Amino acid sequence: MTAPGATARLAFDVFCQVIDNYGDAGVCWRLARQLASRGYAVRLWIDRLSTLAQLVPALDVRLSGQRVDSVHVGSWAEACQAMPPRHGVVLEAFGCTLPVPYQARIVTQDSLWVNLEYLSAETWTARCHGLPSPQASGAIKYFYFPGFTPASGGLLRESGLLARRDRAHRQDRRQRLHALTGLDTSELTPQTRCVLLFAYPQAPMASLQAALSQQAEPVWLLVPGGTPQGLHDEGSLRVHAIPFVPQARFDEVLWCCDLNFVRGEDSLVRAIWAARPLVWQLYPQTDQAHLAKLRAWLDILPLTPEATQLQNAWNGRHPGELVEAVRQALRPAAWQAWQLQAQRHCKALAAQDDLVTRLLAFCVQHRETR
Ligand code: TRH
Fold it and tell me: Which domains does the chain have, with CATH numbers?
C-alpha cells in the first residue's frame, strides 16, 4: 500500500491524438476523469476537441482551454507552450507523438513518461508491460499495456460502477430505455430480447438481419446514431435507431440490453462490466492483425462453443456461418450458459485492481526508484 501523500502530489498530463472514431478520445477521457476523481491534477491535451465533445456535451469546441469535470482540457497548440508537470506524469496515449517543444522539457521537469498502449489479450503485451524505452533526449519512456490479467496494466473501472449497474438492473427496463433514448417502449415486453448494435460498417449486417428476424421471441435491435443499410423490421425483428448518448450514460444503454454487439476497446470493456453476453467486433486492420487480437481474447475467455463461433463469424473469419452461429448461440440452453459466463467473467475481472489503481502504483514505484 503506498502512502497517500506519495501520490497525492502527482499531476498528470494526458495526450490524445484522435485517429478516427471515438475510442482514442473515449479512453483518454475516462482515464482523465478517473484520475481527477481521485484528487489528482489532470490536464488532457487533445488534437480533435470536436470528437471528444460528442462524448462530453459540456465541452465547448470554441474554447482552446477549459475545465470540465475537474479536468483541464486543452488544445495541442496550447500544449506546445505548456510545461510538463514537475515530478509528475506524462501519459502519451496510443503512441501519439508529443509536441516537440513539450517533449524537450520532460527531462528538465523530471516527469515520468508513460506510453499507454492499446488494450490487448495477446501474451506478448504482458512481457512488454512496464518496460523502459530510453529516448535520445535522455528521458526514459515506459510502456504501459492495459489487459485482462493481474500481470497487465488492468482495465478502466471506476469505483461504484457495478453497484450502479445492479441498481439499474433492478429498475423497470422500459422506463430506463425510454428515459435514455426517447423510444416509445410501451410495446417492449419482458420476453423481448434487446440487442445493442454498435458496429463498424464491415459487419455482416444482412446475416444478422436474417438471423434475428427468424427468432421465436421478439427482438429489438437498438442502433446508436442511425440504422445501417440493410437492417429493417422483419418477422420477430424491430430495428430502432437511438441517439448517440453522452459517454457518462453509455453504460446505461448497455444495461438495458440483453446482448451487446460492441466494437473498439472502450465499449468492449464497458460491455464486460455490464455482465451481459457480448459480441466484440475489433477495429479492422488491413494486415488482419485484429484477428490475432481476437484469437488471443477468445483464448482467455470462458465462452460456449456457440458464442465463440459467433465472435469469429462476426469478425469475418467465417461470415457465412453467422446466421447459424446466432441461431445456436441464442438457443435456450446455450443462451443461459452464455449469460452465466458473462456474469462470471465480469466478477473475475472486477476482483482485480482497476487500471488507475495499478497505474498509480506503477508511477509511485518509478518515482521512488528515480
Ligand atoms: O469508436 P470506436 O470504434 O473507437 C475505435 C477504437 O477505440 C479502436 O481501438 C481505435 O483504434 C480506433 O477507435 C481509432 O470504439 P470504442 O473504443 O468502443 O469507442 C467508442 C466510444 O464511444 C466509447 O467511449 C463509448 C462511446 N459512446 C458513447 O459515449 N455514446 C454512445 O452512444 C456510443 C454508441 C458510444
Answer: 7-155+353-368 (3.40.50), 161-350 (3.40.50.2000)
